[in-house]
Hints:
Keywords: Cytoplasm, Methylation, Protein biosynthesis
Subcellular location: Cytoplasm
Strand content: 15-25%
GO molecular function: translation release factor activity, codon specific
Family: Belongs to the prokaryotic/mitochondrial release factor family.
CATH architecture of the largest domain: 2-Layer Sandwich
Organism: Propionicimonas paludicola
Amino acid sequence: MTAADLQADLAVLDRTLQSIEAVLDPAAKKAEIAELAEQAAAPDLWDDQDNAQAVTSKLSRLQAEVDRITALRGRVDDLGVLIELAVEEDDPATLSEAQRDLKGLSADIEALEIRTLLAGEYDQRDALVTIRAEAGGVDAADFASMLLRMYLRWAERHGYATEVYDTSFAEEAGIKSATFTVKEPFAYGMLSVEQGTHRLVRISPFDNQGRRQTSFAGVDVLPVTEETDHIDVPEADIRVDVFRSSGPGGQSVNTTDSAVRITHLPTGLVVSCQNEKSQLQNKAAALRVLQSRLLERARAEKEAEMRGLKGDAGNSWGSQMRSYVLHPYQMVKDLRTEHEVGNPDAVFDGDIDAFIDAGVRWRRQQGER
């Protein structure tokens, strides 16, 4: 790649970053940061712990966003200087360094550009993810455990905190279901495009005749509720059952009735949590899951009402959405965006950013039609 090519590509990235800056408006965010910092410095801040946590959390998130934009702008400017230096000194080594920097910068700006497309009502929230085995017997249960590992590895790659609330293990292998949170701003906006039915085709490791098996697993993604949601769950509306935790355990995890199952009587929704040793902690976690499901139920009802007013049946992108084929060839393909890769091992190891990015762009295009 010549210096002229690098300068042309950098100019494109510069314009892209300018459009991102126009959308994210770092100047406005800095003004909000100053206001939040003043609130955080108040001596009576922690008299109201819920408000204090909301203030400090938002302050941290906004500061991280501004730092990210500022750092990218600095890298664009520095790279421009590096290319000019390579031209002036006719230095191929410096030109190669600039080319490597351009590649990394391009990927980071594209990732930030995806963030600007996440403008849904709850897109900024943490994500509550449930994976469940569907058709396919033991292969489906094993597939569900593969998906659970895939998403946890994806979060680990990015340094996102996760917490597994509940895992129901299958009898022979894998899991019946699992529920976990990804604690990162915009996690819901990113992972919501993963919702739907995932399909695996492979030679079954559980079939002694070595036959090809197709199995399915479902992924549900909900926004985590916040104090401002006002999702009230009166005690009279729920039934709480306790039971002994199942699956691998130790240090009293499976020796006491600490697991909690909550049934929401008006809707019939059932949630459970068995990850904590304390029954009280499991009940609190299960209530958070229930609140998220009730929030999503209210959102879905509102959306259905709006579709009814528009006379629009909507789309079915949330059904079967991705195929993972391990035999007779190797490919992972998104059935909505047509994005595909030929390395399923990397995908199952958490390399799903390209699928998420394509899904976010696809969803935005569908919304603009």
